[in-house]
Design goal:
globular; mainly beta; 6 strands; 6-stranded mixed beta sheet
Length: about 90
Amino acid sequence: MDTIWVKSKWSQDELDRKRVELRIPAHGGIVHGLGEFRVRQNPDGLLAIDAVTDVQGRNWAERIRTRYHLPQAAVDRIAKHPDTKVGDFLLE
């Protein structure tokens, strides 16, 4: 998959490795969970922002890591989380 470069009101330092609660459309439904942002920046100042989540697999020892490459429309909806005990950011 090609990298999705976007503009954001948030900087790489503000987002990278920060906790996020997300509710996003994916896989024909809505994904709701907790994860963290992974952010890269190119020389032009554009960002590639991924939301990474781990979910329980079929048994207690299995964890499934999923990486969502966020398009501009999703990045535009990133907001500070109203409950910092849950996450640093909210993406709905």
